[in-house]
Amino acid sequence: RVPKAEREVPRDIPKEPPQTQEKRVTLREPWPLPAVVVAYHITNDGNPDSYPLHIAAKVLSDGQTSRIYQKLVYDKQMAVAAFGNANLIEDPNLFYAVGIVQPGHSPEDVTKELIAEVERLKTEPISDHELQRAKNQFARDYILSRESNQQKAMHLAHAVVIHHDIKTADGEFDIFQNISVADVQRVAR
After folding, report:
1. Whole-number Å distance between alpha carbons of 66 and 114
2. Over its length of 189 residues, how does the chain's per-residue pLDDT go in tens digits?
């Protein structure tokens, strides 16, 4: 057995300075196709707003039925792939959306469409069908990520270390199932 530390282990992680304006960075590399990443600052995991953000991320960017995949890959055929995620961790982080640009289209056009879909989430509520599909995806992920003892232990550790409350290891399921369309639109704004 490893003995408990005699004193608190320091965790002096410097805070990122507040972002006050948009930043754009262009990297030029010999990749086969250009990629665009659009990112927004979000809260930390365990914050009450983090739960609707999970749902918003699923609606916008989880799989081929997501809004950005449908719009960029199927409808406008501007991207060969589109995906994203809400990177919810212990500290505030980013929601990001990615588009791999289809030949014949510009990164600028894909950037505009990705931003337009995020803006649409702010102004136009998601449908009840989209909300239910995201909840179903969450339920699937929740169950499949707890199949082994190791996975269960990881969820318990996450609840203790990140949320400081072991009850969230199981309690989050009900939180997600009770999220409303209005909750998603509120955090998108």
Report:
1. 12
2. 888 888 887 878 788 888 889 999 999 888 899 999 999 999 999 899 999 999 999 999 988 999 999 999 999 999 999 999 999 988 899 999 999 999 999 999 999 999 999 999 999 999 999 999 999 988 999 899 999 999 999 989 989 888 888 888 888 889 999 999 999 999 999
Token readout for 4 is 């408990």
**Which residue spans within 35-128 are E strands per DSSP?**
35-42, 79-86, 93-101
Q: How far apart are CA 42 and CA 173, in angstroms?
A: 21
Spatial CA neighbour of 25 closest among 11, 16, 35: 35
Token look-up 């992920």 returns: 141
Phi-psi label, residue 114: left if phi above 0, alpha if psi -120 to 50, beta otherwise: alpha
Per-residue tokens: 102 = 């289809």
What DSSP string runs through 108-157?
HHHHHHHHHHHHHHHHSPPPHHHHHHHHHHHHHHHHHTTSSHHHHHHHHH
Strand partners, 36: 99
Its pTM stands at 0.84
Query: How many CB atoms within 10 Å of residue 6?
Result: 5
Phi, psi of 70 (to 5 degrees): -55, -50
CA distances to 46, 132, 137 from 186, rounded to whole Å, are 17, 17, 21
